[in-house]
Write a structure and sequence with these properties.
Helices cover 18% and strands 14% of the residues. It is α+β, with helices and mostly antiparallel strands. It has a four-stranded mixed beta sheet, with helices on both faces. Helix 1 links the parallel strand 1 and strand 2.
Length: 131
Amino acid sequence: MPDHPPTNDGSWRHQLGSPDFPPEPDRYHLYVGLFCPFAHRVLLTRELKGLQRFLPVSIVKPYPKEGGGWRFPATDEEYPGSTVDHLFQSQFLHDLYFRSDSTYQGKYSVPLLWDKKTNQIVNNESEDIMR
């Protein structure tokens, strides 16, 4: 059974810093798109708090509308400002949502915070991730 709190919009709303998701070095991975203002504020918070060493980032390409949605480039050089999925080598962002919950039917959005220890999405709401 998928382990994410039910919401009306299909989002994950676990809280980083809770007993289930304590802050630990090398435990989490952040997924963003540079086109998204909500992802920007998470990236800015990451920078201001000096978390670059502790919270690695993968960046989707900005033009997702055709052929399967938000896509990762095949190489870090393919599209400036985007990166491969450094954690799973996924082709699409939705692959991560289905990896966390194979029955997921909601939206696929960035930012997304992944827990490498429990192998699931922690949160995909920028305001929560910034805390």
